[in-house]
Amino acid sequence: MNDCIFCKIAAGQLPSGKVYEDDEVLAFHDIHPFARVHVLIIPKMHIATLSDCLPEHQALLGRMLWLAPRLAREHGLDAGFKTLINTGRGGGQEVFHLHVHVFGGGDPVRKS
Ligand code: AMP
Ligand code: ZN
Questions:
Q1: Which numbered atom of ligand 1 lies nearest the CA of 5?
Q2: End-to-end CA gap in the chain
């Protein structure tokens, strides 16, 4: 997927504010945060949307969600946080590489 910005970030071809990396998953600061803390968790492999996930992606999805509270805690969101996965144009997705938003802190935020 040559034109995918998140593939380029995962490959180290574009800079990011990386906060976590393992063999399958990367997390970095959202470039336009809508809360004091706003990170994105992505799979390193290109999966366009949540709807494109196959049965063999179940463990990967679990890893991404498992990571969310750990990153939130590391960034001081002890009182809680929000997670968001926009799926498809109708779901408000703008970057077509699967990502989980993890955000919170500061003023109360509402984004659905
Ligand atoms: P979505 O609407 O769920 O597709 O959200 C895409 C998110 O990616 C938005 O919150 C953007 O601010 C964020 N974003 C886009 N480009 C970058 C980038 N190069 N680095 C970090 N975050 C980005
Ligand atoms: Zn991609």
A1: 19
A2: 28
Q: What is the mean pLDDT of each run of 10 residues along the chain (112 residues)?
A: 90 97 98 96 98 98 98 97 98 98 79 52
The pLDDT of residue 73: 97
Predicted TM-score of the model (pTM) = 0.95
Q: Is residue 111 part of a domain?
A: no
Ligand 2 centroid to Cα of residue 40, in Å, is 13
- Residue 38 designated active-site: no
Which residues have a Cβ under 8 Å from the Cβ of 67 and sit 6 or more positions away? 20, 25, 27, 41
> What is the tally of structural domains in the chain?
1
Could you tell which of 38, 40, 51, 83 is best to mutate to test the pocket of ligand 1, judged by most ligand atoms within 8 Å of the CB? 40
